[in-house]
Write a structure and sequence with these properties.
Blueprint: E1 2-8, E2 17-19, E3 21-25, E4 28-29, E5 35-39, E6 45-46, E7 58-61, E8 74-77, E9 83-85, H1 91-99, E10 103-107, H2 125-133, E11 167-171, H3 172-181, H4 189-192, E12 196-199, E13 216-219, E14 222-231, H5 247-256, E15 260-269, E16 271-274, E17 279-281
Parallel strand pairs: 11-12
Antiparallel strand pairs: 1-2, 1-12, 3-4, 3-16, 5-6, 5-10, 7-8, 8-9, 11-15, 13-14, 13-17, 14-15
């Protein structure tokens, strides 16, 4: 196996940057998800589960992020092609206008209260969860016991803008399987927002990474412990850039892949990942 693609996302739920190489620290790929928007209507840090229009924005760094230092400024490309930087005085009003929803842009903060969940859209918990995960009435919800307990109270583990864990790994074989099982759909990697895409798995498994939980991925000098499968939500159905809205893709994930595509990992040994670099399982 080898690394086929490396991605980082300067801002939560916005389009990211494809890299040739990157340093991976204990907190994940350096510079990954260091900015996010706060919902000024219902409170709380929000991603595209709730504010789908975020996926029509894209972010890039104006300077290279450095491990352990504050997040550098980012430039955000708006749906109309115009750009705004995080230090522009009108950045919040321009993002708000693009999303048609009042938000403010924030770098990572030290205060745990910054990460507390905002008010739900529905008073019924089951309705709220089905809306977030895009589940139909006869489809199961994910097994939430595999996630860190703090994500019940917080939108993300405090000090991060990750949904649960610092790395998301996916195989190109899983994406190809989804397209084969869902004629007319594009299982484009941008829908799934991984950090690492593993290629050349050389296995007959339909979704090979689902068998990696509990094992260690060795990538050069770095080691990543695979801790959980990634249940998919409404985000992979969103239409953005040149991709149309596609609800059927999620139906296939739920039906054929036990609702999971990709796996979450934590960093056991920091190191550097390089496109083309060998990947082994331990």
């Amino acid at each position: 196996m080898r690394i086929g693609e490396v991605w980082r996302y300067p801002a939560k739920s916005m389009g990211g940057e494809q890299l040739e190489r990157s340093t991976v620290a204990h907190t994940g790929i350096v510079g990954d998800r260091t900015w996010a928007v706060r919902d000024e209507v219902r409170g709380g840090i929000r991603g595209a589960k709730k504010i789908g229009g975020l996926m029509n924005l894209a972010a890039r760094y104006l300077a290279d992020p450095i491990e352990g230092e504050p997040a550098p400024a980012i430039e955000i490309t708006l749906p109309n092609g115009n750009t705004v930087t995080s230090d522009d005085p009108d950045v919040n009003s321009r993002i708000t206008a693009a999303l048609d929803h009042k938000v403010t842009l924030w770098p990572l903060q030290p205060d745990p209260d910054h990460y507390r969940r905002g008010a739900p859209d529905s008073d019924d918990l089951l309705t709220e969860l089905r809306d977030m995960f895009g589940r139909e009435g006869d489809e199961p919800l994910p097994d939430f016991s595999q996630f860190p307990p703090e994500v019940i109270e917080y939108e993300s583990p405090p000090g991060t803008y990750f949904d649960a864990y610092p790395l998301l790994v996916i195989t190109d074989q899983s994406l190809a399987s989804l397209e084969r099982m869902t004629p007319g759909s594009r299982a484009d990697v941008r829908r799934f927002r991984p950090n690492l895409v593993v290629a050349e798995c050389e296995t007959e498994s339909t979704f090979p990474e689902q068998d990696w939980v509990g094992r260690t991925l060795v990538v050069g000098t770095a080691e990543f412990e695979v801790v959980a499968r990634c249940p998919r939500c409404v985000m992979i159905t969103r239409g953005f850039e040149d991709l149309p809205e596609d609800r059927e893709l999620l139906r296939t994930v739920v039906r054929e892949a036990d609702q999971n595509i990709g796996v979450y990992a934590i960093v056991k040994t920091p190191g550097e990942v390089v496109v083309g670099g060998a990947v082994t399982l331990a």
